[in-house]
Each structure stands twice: as C-alpha cells, then as structure tokens.
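ok, trying the design again with the full structure, not the truncated one.
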C-alpha cells in the first residue's frame, strides 16, 4: 500500500491542528505555511476531514478549524480512511474482491497483511503523533522534504 499525497499531507495537517489548535482555531493559511502545503490543496483535504467529522470549522474573526474530538479519540486509521478510503494493501481478500478469491491459496496471506495494516493504524492515536511532533520539531515549522 502506498499512500497518496492527500493521505500524507492530510496526516501532517491534522497533527499540526492537534498541536496548534488547543487554545484557538487554526487557519488553513497557518497550517499551509507551517507544513509547506498549498492552501488550495489543504482546503480540499480539510473538507474530507470535516466530512468525516474529525475536524470542524469555527466561523468569525478568530475562526479556523479545530478537532471535532479529543486527539486521543482519533486514530491514524480514522484519518487515513477519511482521506484514502480502504487501507487494504490487496483488494482480493476483501468482501467482493477477486472472482477467484474463494479458491485462492494466497488469500490468507493478503488477509493477514491487510489485518496487520488496519490494526496498526487503528492503535496509533493522533495525540501520540502530536506529542512526538513536539519533541521532533518544537517550533512546528515545515522541515520535512519527503514527497
């Protein structure tokens, strides 16, 4: 499974929101500046996170975005599924997958891999990532050059 830029940037954006949105709503432009993501693309990503009820908007002069739940109630799996959809590495083991799935000798392997991926991302919490981010990058400025 390879995540798209939408998933990778979205995860960075929501970690930023968890860090800097504790006291007041955070603007798209401030997240974009800190994370090195275009505002237009970030707006599309945040719309998906909002639709999944992971973030909510606050209107007005001091408006922006805040988490819709506590950071310790949001898993990485919640975030990535909101942005990427199904996280299975191989679709053949899923319900309605490959036409030959019932007779496939490798179905067990793919199911185990998919289950491991989903279990791992569901155990990781946004609060843990936000805390780790504070330790790694205290000022929050964009330094990650991975694509």
């Amino acid at each position: 499974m390879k995540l798209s830029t939408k998933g990778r940037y979205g995860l960075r954006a929501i970690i930023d929101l968890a860090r800097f949105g504790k006291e007041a709503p955070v603007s798209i432009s401030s997240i974009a500046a800190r994370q090195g993501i275009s505002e237009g693309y970030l707006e599309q990503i945040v719309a998906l996170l909002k639709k999944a009820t992971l973030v909510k908007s606050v209107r007005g002069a001091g408006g922006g975005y805040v988490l819709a739940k506590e950071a310790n109630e949001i898993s990485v799996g919640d975030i990535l599924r909101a942005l990427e959809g199904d996280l299975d590495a191989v679709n053949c083991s899923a319900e309605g997958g490959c036409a030959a799935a019932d007779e496939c000798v490798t179905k067990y392997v793919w199911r185990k891999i998919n289950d491991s991926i989903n279990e791992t991302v569901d155990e990781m919490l946004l609060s843990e990532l936000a805390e780790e981010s504070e330790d790694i990058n205290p000022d929050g400025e964009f330094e990650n050059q991975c694509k």
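Keeping the full-length input from now on. Residues 107-123 form the longest helix (17 residues).
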